[in-house]
């Protein structure tokens, strides 16, 4: 367990929130909590500014003090030391960064509600790594505050908050201002026969204007980002009967796969073992991202408003597979029939690809005092993906010679959200009523191409499509009884899935014609309640008990995004249009005591979920993963979290955040696969530790140390696959360092390293190895 390094990390670090700075107007799916009496809110790390989302259960607020101590290549990095929390980020610029709370699997993306200034950027078109929140619409330099709430303990939020809620608050200008930040970074990467250094850089800047004696403000920001991420997949040879093939050398046998197979904890069919040695690494991903955002604010006393528009362009080019095989003349071999020591294999799957995406977020919110102590709020937003095109070659030779391939094109794709809230507050009680709505739509067509780099002359192959919508009404009441605050809420949801289906080319008399399978519309209702008690003792101790129920309805992708078999027929095991919604019962007890120099918080949580929707993953003949969604009858998690925050201790100018969590997450009942019952849920570690230590070395120089640790979890649902290499989910241990040097009042330079000890960790795919960063920032 790398005990000495963990001891070092625990001695130096810690990890959680402290202060946040200001407030913003709440919006769609994010009703306001900032005007509630401060004594009614128990928030870890909260010091200077109110949290922007209703903090029932464990709640964390991260402000400038924490954010400035992080090596932030992307916005989601800013949360990496939060308690019992992680983001499945494989490399800088990764579009598949799924956040996870407590016992949430790292591909259960539909269990987290993520917002930017209250506008939804969670991608509930599916539930996997391919449907991560749209972090890229915000640059790290824009972020003022991160608020994180664990679990669905407020009736204000949809059931997708079953795991938790994240709200990113971006800066509002107080006066005329400007900023610029540039970064450069490099990752020396060494794995199997891949040996390379992967470079990246970014440039971000913006201006803010605020009327001196008027209600208007404007902020305009932009960011350019480029990086090359390490290979995500290692491709294995497929043994074939008979003899023959090009004699080659250079194939790599992974000793960890051999060890796991001998111990009975290997992955059947996985590449890398003695029978299926690696012949190539997937091409490194060359990522280019361009982001721009406009934020207009209006504040005229009883009436406030905000308009937000964000644009994000993303290119992912993978046109350089790292082929390990060489023939007798030393030529590269990356495809076809090969022979190694008399055994014949087939090498395939080293495809070339390029993905182009254009996306935008637009949102508007208004708030007005309509009577004494009564405020009305309206918010609407849309996130649209007008262009997503993925060009893929049919193999290595086709990629190199512009041969045949496929195109996966999406559109129209996106979602709308809306929220109307009425709140009435006095010194002794608060009432809130709200209506919310959302609508999600996806449509993807796959075509065959004669030249994989061009959409010209494409021919139809398959299509998947579908829509969901959800209408909700909720109410929440708070009563303030001196030291005791009681909050009760109820939420009604009506969900509908419709216009869903799959299309393919017909056979027989219908050969060459698209044939569609469509599904009858489905609807479902649910009523869920929430109840919270918070008691404040006079000696700086607070206790909060929160209870809740939540319903998370299936996404379009889980219901309708099936796949085809090799003969062109539908694979009935790849999707289930009759999936049941997930229904949870949750409880969280939080106890906190502030000693002044240290604040201690303890949390105990419990969650029981009926009909958990889970993606069953396996390998196909090329070592590429396949998945399908099914219901698991019953899962349960419970655990404990301990959080410590010190201020100017043990040294003046030193602040420490430290948190540790124990998680027991199990499948209790699964009639379809009894062997999973009683087994720790996959990808959920028993232990997780995050920490951050910040120290003012001088009045201009600050150093920080960060720690991230997670114990080794199960890789599969049955607890049979445990290892520390590609295909497994492994133990994680990373130490991060950063130095900030304030050269002048306006100019700062920074240097840092993530994963100092070069720990090689895996979340099926490889996590980054040691990465170096230099950064310069200027602010007017």
TrEMBL record:
<keyword id="KW-0675">Receptor</keyword>
<keyword id="KW-1134">Transmembrane beta strand</keyword>
<dbReference type="Pfam" id="PF07715">
    <property type="entry name" value="Plug"/>
</dbReference>
<keyword id="KW-0813">Transport</keyword>
<feature type="domain" description="TonB-dependent receptor plug">
    <location>
        <begin position="61"/>
        <end position="165"/>
    </location>
</feature>
<keyword id="KW-0798">TonB box</keyword>
<dbReference type="InterPro" id="IPR039426">
    <property type="entry name" value="TonB-dep_rcpt-like"/>
</dbReference>
<dbReference type="InterPro" id="IPR000531">
    <property type="entry name" value="Beta-barrel_TonB"/>
</dbReference>
<dbReference type="GO" id="GO:0044718">
    <property type="term" value="P:siderophore transmembrane transport"/>
</dbReference>
<comment type="similarity">
    <text>Belongs to the TonB-dependent receptor family.</text>
</comment>
<dbReference type="GO" id="GO:0015344">
    <property type="term" value="F:siderophore uptake transmembrane transporter activity"/>
</dbReference>
<feature type="signal peptide">
    <location>
        <begin position="1"/>
        <end position="20"/>
    </location>
</feature>
<dbReference type="InterPro" id="IPR037066">
    <property type="entry name" value="Plug_dom_sf"/>
</dbReference>
<dbReference type="GO" id="GO:0009279">
    <property type="term" value="C:cell outer membrane"/>
</dbReference>
<dbReference type="InterPro" id="IPR036942">
    <property type="entry name" value="Beta-barrel_TonB_sf"/>
</dbReference>
<dbReference type="Pfam" id="PF00593">
    <property type="entry name" value="TonB_dep_Rec_b-barrel"/>
</dbReference>
<keyword id="KW-0998">Cell outer membrane</keyword>
<protein>
    <submittedName>
        <fullName>Siderophore receptor protein</fullName>
    </submittedName>
</protein>
<keyword id="KW-0472">Membrane</keyword>
<feature type="domain" description="TonB-dependent receptor-like beta-barrel">
    <location>
        <begin position="339"/>
        <end position="756"/>
    </location>
</feature>
<keyword id="KW-0406">Ion transport</keyword>
<dbReference type="InterPro" id="IPR012910">
    <property type="entry name" value="Plug_dom"/>
</dbReference>
<keyword id="KW-0732">Signal</keyword>
<keyword id="KW-0812">Transmembrane</keyword>
